[in-house]
Specification:
Mean pLDDT: 70
GO molecular function: lipid binding
Structural class: alpha+beta
Order of helices and strands: HHHHHHHHHEEEEEHHEEEEEHH
Subcellular location: Cell projection
CATH class of one domain: Mainly Alpha
Shape: flat
Distance between the termini: 88 Å
Main location: other
Protein name: FCSD1 protein
Helix content: 40-55%
Radius of gyration: 34 Å
InterPro entries: AH/BAR_dom_sf, F_BAR_dom, FCHSD_SH3_1, SH3-like_dom_sf, SH3_domain
Low-confidence stretches: 235-243, 336-366, 429-443, 452-456, 521-611, 618-629
Number of helices: 13
Strand order of the largest sheet: 4-3-2-1-5
């Protein structure tokens, strides 16, 4: 029975008692007024909250549909252009065969036109394959998003609109029925039925009856986008300039792993905040409630993003790609990383972009040990299990460390201990084997490695990084892959910047367009250059070893993860210089209770993983010439 039917039984029972129950009727009227007021206030609050959530979900669905429409228009336009070029090429070929030169054309001009239209047709055919794949991706992504909206977000929004209304009404109705039974045995039989009916009032039953009376609110039949006029996704030919499907598989496997990690981390944070909220007084719980709502929003957005990425991976798997290999590599990398801290910055807006970070791309294979490396910066161990190292010393890295940014290494004397990973430069091995997948600070680490390898830039030169793969169109142009580091050579005095720069990549000198690269941080500052009206500065702002925590105490929350850090680039000839005193490098590492204000972390507390933060960067670079080994 619905809530209205139960309430009707209460009213009829009250009327049956008559004037004898006037006092009881006044009590029921007061109780009904309180219930209505409470229900109205709760309904208004939940309506405002639920509508905001529903509008966000609908706005995200609208963005997916806009992306689909954009991809469709691009595909249609390119397909039409290809057909026009095909018709023109066929017309010129027919005129050549018939020797129909007319008055304004010669045989040579017709042959040139034929070659021109044939080249244009080939170019359109090549581009059409890539645009077709993008259209297919947009189709499956929008289909998955719509299905998720209908199955998950819309029912959740309807449930959120009711909130705890039915629980409150159930309590009021039960209290009314119990009072009537205790007050007057004469009407016991009547109100006993009302009491039993009131205990069965629930949101599910009321919603079912409401949907039966109002079919407009029923769930719509399942809608699926169809690939009308488009073939299934297919592999691009070798040497094509479009995006390769293997790269797409790697990107979306990374997105699935990242969303799973974000969801798991946010769920853990939500549980910890829930436990903390129960212990706080009412006045201090508002901040925790806000953080819990932000964590739930992150979880919801991660689910939507993962559903869309898995749909793309399913399409790539159907095309014959080994998606599971990339997905397994990404999941292994995610499983090894355990959330180690709670930072308020983690509750910033979750960017639901379909373009995952390039530095987060996983590899199908894990790290391989051991490998040889050279010490870029000296370090004095602060704990018994840490290894003291000197600049220029060669080490053998044997395994991962017990915390992020640390590895276990062995020196030539046979001593084994933990050392900061970013203080080392890998020698004679593939960076993917020695250092694993690139992290968020991969660009800074790569630049530091180049400078540590004593790459001397002449005055006026600087370094840039390729944003895209580029294939030279002539022998004078450079060809390079995405992420390549290129040394830009200085221009002659008075030379005008025509959009093409001269650079050196992998020992080859040539020109390339400046639009496909980005300047590395601090590179042009070292050369005394100013680009685009701004001076690029290598920031050396020190990072705190311990990011600020939430109101939850350290015994109840996991330890914070080490902050991102990249050692500054070395000056020319400073690679093998003996390191400065440990007090200079570490800023006074606390071993006897003195020195800097940053004390050693407490490893005895209950944590998910050991807390071992990297030491701060060296305060200066040695000035003496190195002694070559």
């Amino acid at each position: 029975r619905t809530m209205a039917a139960v309430w009707k039984g209460v009213i009829e029972g009250t009327a049956h008692a008559g004037q004898v129950r006037v006092t009881a009727s006044e009590s029921y009227r007061a109780l009904a007024t309180e219930a209505a007021r409470t229900a109205r206030l709760s309904k208004e609050r939940m309506l405002k909250k639920g509508m905001e959530r529903l509008q966000k979900a609908q706005a995200e669905l609208l963005e997916s549909v806009k992306e689909l429409d954009k991809a469709k228009k691009q595909f249609t336009h390119l397909q039409r252009s290809s057909e026009v070029a095909k018709d023109k090429a066929a017309d010129v070929e027919a005129r050549l065969r018939k020797s129909d030169r007319r008055i304004f054309h010669t045989k040579a001009s017709l042959q040139k036109l034929s070659a021109k239209f044939s080249a244009r047709l080939a170019e359109h055919s090549r581009q059409l394959a890539g645009v077709q794949n993008e259209y297919s991706f947009a189709l499956v992504s929008a289909t998955a998003h719509l299905e998720h909206y209908q199955r998950v977000e819309l029912p959740a929004a309807m449930q959120a609109l009711d909130g705890d209304l039915y629980e409150r009404l159930r309590e009021h109705l039960s209290a009314t029925s119990r009072t009537e039974v205790e007050t007057c045995r004469a009407t016991w039989d009547w109100f006993q039925g009302v009491a039993e009916a009131s205990t069965r009032v629930c949101q599910e039953q009321d919603l079912l009856l409401f949907l039966q009376d109002h079919p407009a609110f029923s769930l719509a039949p399942e809608q699926r986008f169809q690939l009308t006029g488009v073939e299934e996704v297919r592999l691009l030919p070798p040497g094509d300039d479009g995006a390769s499907l293997e790269k797409e598989a790697r990107r979306w496997a990374t997105r699935v792993a990242r969303d799973q990690k974000n969801k798991a981390h946010s769920e853990e944070v939500l549980q910890l905040l829930e436990a903390r909220r129960q212990q706080l007084p009412e006045g201090e719980a508002a901040t925790v409630e806000r953080q819990m709502e932000e964590a739930r929003e992150i979880i919801r957005k991660a689910e939507v993003s993962r559903v869309k990425a898995e749909a793309r991976l399913a399409l790539l798997r159907a095309a014959g790609l080994d998606v599971d290999a990339w997905l397994a590599g990404a999941m292994v990398g995610t499983g090894e990383e355990t959330p180690t801290g709670l930072d308020p910055a983690e509750f910033d807006d979750y960017e639901d972009s379909d373009e995952p970070d390039g530095d987060d791309e996983p590899g199908p294979a894990a790290r391989t040990y051991p490998y040889t490396c050279r010490v870029i910066f000296g370090y004095q161990g602060c704990q018994a299990d840490e290894l003291s190292i000197t600049q220029g010393e060669e080490l053998e890295v044997i395994e991962d460390g017990d915390a992020e940014e640390w590895v276990k290494a062995r020196n030539k004397a046979g001593r084994v201990g933990y050392v900061p990973e970013k203080y080392l430069l890998s020698l004679g091995c593939d960076s993917g084997a020695g250092l694993g997948p690139l992290g968020p600070s991969a660009l800074h680490r790569q630049l530091s490695s180049i400078m540590a390898a004593e790459l001397v830039l002449e005055p006026g030169a600087w370094l840039v990084r390729a944003l895209y793969d580029y294939e030279g169109q002539s022998p004078e142009e450079l060809s390079f892959p995405e992420g390549a580091i290129i040394r830009v050579l200085p221009r002659a005095a008075g030379e005008v910047d025509d959009g093409f720069w001269t650079g050196d990549f992998d020992g080859r000198v040539g020109v390339f367009p400046s639009l496909v690269v980005e300047e590395l941080t601090g590179a042009r500052e070292a050369a005394g250059q100013v680009s685009g009206g701004r001076v690029v500065v290598w920031e050396k702002t020190p990072f705190p070893l311990f990011p600020s925590l939430l109101v939850v105490s350290s015994q109840e929350l996991p330890s914070p993860s080490p902050p991102p850090f990249s050692p500054p680039g070395l000056a020319t000839g400073a690679l093998l210089t003996p390191s400065p005193a440990p007090e200079t490098l570490l800023g006074g590492c606390r071993q006897d209770g003195t020195g800097s204000g940053q004390s050693s972390p407490d490893l005895t507390a209950t944590r998910l993983r050991p807390l071992r933060a990297p030491p701060p960067p060296p305060s200066r670079v040695p000035e003496s010439d190195p002694e070559r080994h």
